[in-house]
Amino acid sequence: MDFSMELPATYYALYVLELGATETILGMIGFSSFIALAAVQFPGGYLADKFGRRWLVSSMTFAVALCYIFFAIAPSWHLILLGTVVMSLCHIYQPALMAMIADAVPAEKRGMGFSLIMLIISASTTPGPFVAGILYTQFGLVEGMRIGYTIVTALFLIAAILRLRLTETMEDSSRPGFKDILAAFPTGLRESFAVWNKVPRSMFYLFLSLVILNVGWAASNLFIVVYAVQELGIDEAVWPLILTGLFAAMIVLAIPVGKAVDKFNRKVPLLISYAAFFVAIFLFITGDLLRVFVALILFGVANILINAAYGALEADLTPKQQRGKVMGFSNFSNDIAMAIGNIVGGALYEHVSPQFPFLITIVFLIPSFFLTLSMVHEPEKRED
Predict the structure, then answer these.
(1) Are 33 and 88 in contact (CB under 8 A)?
(2) Whole-structure pTM value
(3) CA-CA distances (angstroms) from residue 284 to 13, 68, 304?
(4) Model confidence over 350-359: pLDDT tens digits?
(5) Domains plus CATH for the chain?
């Protein structure tokens, strides 16, 4: 799945623009996607805790796979919008998958566990940009992307079949009926808000710091390839080669970061990741080819740090019976944050300045850093 997703992601923004969208429309598509994704996080978290993780993950992966057909056949950006929204609704399984991972990793090995996951993701995604570059060179942007999305559909269906073999991590699990799924929306909403009375305050501040960060990050991340090609003059065929710096950094650092998070501290890597993001954004917007390459390496460093440390600390602070709801609420809030960031970033990019969304990212990094520094504390005893 990770390899296949990265293949079209390499040129996604340029593809949508080629299908008639503007930067503002590109931001609007991102906004619509994250709003739809947010809408299913509360019921997804509730269903994961109430009925188990496996059935939701395995069944909805098939639905996500079929949604990629929209992207492969789209004659204009309108079908991309439709496919994006439908796919986001199918990601109702996200809290269940995240909770399943947290359940399965022992408390004393969580840093290494989440780092190894990022290592697998990074290793599998690294060939994606190369394949995308070959398709672009041989078939052009639009036809190359259509072939890429066809490959994604096939590989996702294979992954969905493999996920049928997942083992349930909840002791008491059952498949819900149709009435249970309908009831999950109001019940999930109510219980997801109530869950913050059942977890430490540090978990709330950890969650809040990531929401703030994601508003800023979403304002710019959708436009990185657009800015690199249109403003910095980097050739589209060269872009996949530069992008490998990001994945290479994540592969090299995955094991040492995981060991450090388990042995020493979860909080310090989070703070370092914010600093790395700050420097990377500054280098990118003032970039030549070398600076952009260094910036992408720093993005990779920040990514592995934040994923390993945040995932481990979130699991440490959250009781197993509440993880689906906490992750559902977190996903909901982060999706809303990303939606706002996307649409604001698109409008600013097109109508104010291409640099402005990246400056917004830098501004939002600052409160995230200080909130984590002052209000997030590691627990004396980690949750199982």
Answers:
(1) yes
(2) 0.75
(3) 18, 31, 19
(4) 899 999 999 9
(5) 2-375 (1.20.1250.20)
